[in-house]
Amino acid sequence: MDLADSPEEAEFRARLRAWLAKALATLPPKPSPDDWPARRAYDLGWQRMLYDAGYAGLHWPVDAGGRGASPTRHLIFLEETEKAGAPYVGANFVGLLHAGPTIAAEGTPGQRARWLPPVLRGEEVWCQGFSEPDAGSDLASLRTRAWRDGDAYVVSGSKIWTSHAEVADWCELLVRTDPDAPRHRGITWLALSMDAPGVTVRPLRTLAGSNEFAEVFLDEVRVPVANRVGAENDGWRVTMVTLSFERGTAFVGEVVACRRVLGELAREARADGRWDDPSLRRRLGRLNAEFRALWRLTQWNVSEAETTGGVPGVGGSVFKLRYSHARQELYDTAAEVLGADCLDLGRPWVLDRLSSLSYTIAAGTSQIQRNIVAERVLGLPKGR
Ligand SMILES: Cc1cc2nc3c(=O)[nH]c(=O)nc-3n(C[C@H](O)[C@H](O)[C@H](O)COP(=O)(O)OP(=O)(O)OC[C@H]3O[C@@H](n4cnc5c(N)ncnc54)[C@H](O)[C@@H]3O)c2cc1C
């Protein structure tokens, strides 16, 4: 892949920049971080503006409602929106970054037509119902059960750590449809309507004071068989597609944001005299090199995905592993620059520092990514 903009890409970049300058000026003020219904409305409103301007689902295939743009254009879009300070995906992250791409790759034409346009138009929010109290890293041990009853599955069980469940319309849900099969073979991927009778959402509060997570309880919930993505008991394979998107491309936009924060840290350090500290300068320099390398790895992963049917490969685990640790180092450095102010939750970067702790756990812990890299990239023998 050629990393320099072609004349068409430069023109695309300039047009996007001009549109962003106008569009961002019309955005309402950001809602309070704890007001999830208001955040949902804000995030959906921005998504609708992108849709109306022709920037929604840029890199999604045309037959999935997207624009079929090249990976380079998609990355230009991410760079320019972040540089301009535009909102990121917010409450739309599961729909746009992994449920949507999974349905685009694995859904029937009817399923694509039903679920993808509302995600792109900013009308429906998705959440992810994978983890359970006893099934996190070992996801294949999940126990939420589904029985077939005519044209529906009847689902009972519970999910945990379901981000944005409270404001979601749909849930990408993993259920066990064959308890007698080997555990990876008895799982099915369903789209669950969060309004269905029998669904109860109980919010969880994090150490940062946010209630973005919930437990979801399912009591004999009927899910139409037509909402099954992939074949019955083939859900593990579909799940690997979802996780490939989640690890491979879902964090891409954030790398640009981290590079921006790094610049802000350098400016803050210069302003308050900390710049004279050689160890701080060394740290900032190393992080700068690190995020530049992560951006190049992103470009490589995204362009590789394009040559392998659009689904990111195992390079996503390499990226996710290194990115999540680099993000923590970035915000630890921010705390060093802030000094005692790093205890003030109202200061910039302080909440980001707290939430950075979750990055080495979400979407598969670092230990799990290391296992994957060891086995699938380095070809080492499987651990016991
Ligand atoms: C911010 C955030 C958002 C999340 N959002 C969602 C969501 O929307 N939907 C959802 O379904 N889930 C979500 N999760 C849950 C997430 O997927 C799980 O937390 C994660 O998979 C780890 O599972 P666990 O918490 O049960 O930890 P455990 O699996 O119990 O792991 C505990 C520790 O043991 C280690 N460990 C476990 N197995 C191995 C092994 N084989 N080899 C080496 N070490 C091992 C782990 O690395 C970890 O350090 C979210 C988590 C976070 C932090």
Bound molecules: flavin-adenine dinucleotide
Structural class based on helices, strands and sheet pairing: alpha+beta
Strand sequence of the main sheet, in spatial order?
1-4-5-8
Number of helices: 11
Helix content: 40-55%
How would you sum up the global shape? globular
Low-confidence stretches: none
* Main sheet specs: 4 strands, mixed
- Output the helix-strand order: HHHHHEEEEEEEEHHHHHH
Mean pLDDT: 93
- Counting DSSP E segments of at least 2 residues, the number of strands comes to 8
Radius of gyration: 21 Å
Distance between the termini: 39 Å
Strand content: 5-15%
Describe the protein in words:
This protein is an alpha+beta fold. Helices cover 47% and strands 13% of the residues. The protein contains 11 helices and 8 strands. The strands form 2 sheets. A 4-stranded mixed β-sheet has the order 1-4-5-8. Strand 6 and strand 7 form a beta hairpin. Helix 4 crosses helix 6 (235-248). The radius of gyration is 21 Å and the shape is globular. It starts with 6 loop residues before the first helix and ends in a 7-residue tail after the last helix. The relative contact order is 0.09. The model has no long low-confidence stretch (mean pLDDT 93). The structure holds flavin-adenine dinucleotide. Residues 127-131, 136-137, 161-163, 358, 361-362, 364-365, 367-368, 371 line the site of flavin-adenine dinucleotide.
